[in-house]
Amino acid sequence: PYEELVGLPGQDIVHPDYHHLFEDFKRQVQASGRFHAQSIDLRKDGSPINVEVHGASFSYRGKPHLLAVARDITERVLARQMLERRVEERTREIEQRRRVAEGLREILAILNSSRPLKEILDFIVAQVVPLLGANAGVIYHIDSLEQSIIIESASGMPADFITIGPIPLIDTKPNKAILDRQPYAVTDFEATLAAYRADDPSLPPEIHAWIAAIRTHFGSYLSVPLIVNEKVYGAISIFYREPREFSDEEIKLAVAFSDQVALAIENAKLRQRAERAAVIEERGRLARELHDSVTQSLYSMTLFAEAARRLSATGEQESAEEHLSQLGETSQQALKEMRLLVYELRPSTLEEEGLVGVLRQRLDTVEKRAGVEAQLSVEDSLNLPKEIEEGLYRIAQEALNNALKHAAATAVTVRIRIERNLLTMEITDDGRGFDLDAATDTGGVGLSSMQERAEKLNGDLRIASTPGKGTKVQVRVKVR
Questions:
Q1: Cβ atoms within 10 A of the Cβ of 230, count?
Q2: Are 50 and 74 in contact (CB under 8 A)?
Q3: Cα dist from 333 to 327, 432, 479, whole Å
Q4: pLDDT tens digits, residue range 19-62?
Q5: CA-to-CA distance for 402 and 338, rounded, in angstroms?
Q6: Are 380 and 418 in contact (CB under 8 A)?
Q7: Sequential DSSP letters for 192-217
Q8: C-alpha count within 13 angstroms, C-beta hemisphere, residue 252
Q9: Which residues, listed in sequence order, are joined to residue 137 by a DSSP beta bridge?
């Protein structure tokens, strides 16, 4: 009430927390004759009140006085604070969604790569844990023969959990998401285990170990099944140290990540099938090569040898020597092609050796041992993406095969150089050459295959050849 304020010094009216500002108020009034301030005061019952004060100085009976108007602005301050909290929450939500979008983009990028499945799953689970604000995560898969689930990839999981081993696939909480084919959340692990007994003989020891490890390190978790081709492959589970509720948005986000994991698994299986099909196709090609080239050469050698024997027996020595010369040429060509087939039966070392290493190995193993003068010239150090190295090697391989099998070349040279981000690879031989127009019309000597590989690299393929004057294959590709 007004009566209680009359005669009180200014510092007794101001809240103690603002005593240090009272002198500033006095100086402000003395300088300008007015003041304006906001403060937090206390009601008589001790509750806080936000106050806005406007005041002016005046003189009364020769003494300085202050005239002040105080207004309760508590509701306005609380409304502003609530608005600021909402803005902060919205900002956090936007930032979280931005991180999630970036995480999904990075996951999609690795899904489109040719990395091993284990490496992809390790990357995904390492992304999921921080994006969902979790402390750890794990990806399981089902071992259908043993009827158990096995950890395939993990991030942040304690050692005593990782070493548990396969968990029997029975109707228990660790397997709920898999058995029910839907997300399963435990918001408070201790409350959920209220009826659990550590000496329950109906549960396998692995389940007891799993529960003990979770109880030691975590308070809640969310598990989502992994569905691949309409079948349950396993589950992805994320763990939190403290009990917590899971929002619909968090569950939907976990399901979205599980879809990405399922896609990675499905892509890996497709790649494995494609690789097996490629191996079978390559074996078939080698078998055809063996039958079409080496077998025919060996048969021709038999005919030449038999003809030479008969001519020699009848005294036709000159004709016999001619057949023996043809026999030697055919055997040399058969030897070259056999060396090539043996080399192609070896596993590719492109990933370990790189383009330069594998080209050098090819020339040393095949061409040089077959008596062909072979050179490799690389003007710059190379650090190329895997797909570019693969494409360039296959083009070089096709060109070298043609020089060895069809051109009867005695010398080949492979040159690689980079100028202003443009890589140029040339394969030159001194073989018999061919009519380029005729070969293009018939699709011979692997021209279409080399052209397709160059186009996949967004490159340019050029072939120059003249009968009797050798062949040059040139491919140019833009690189970083």
A1: 5
A2: yes
A3: 10, 14, 38
A4: 776 777 777 777 777 777 777 766 777 777 888 878 787 777 77
A5: 14
A6: yes
A7: HTTT--TT-TTS-HHHHHHHHHHHHH
A8: 5
A9: 155, 238
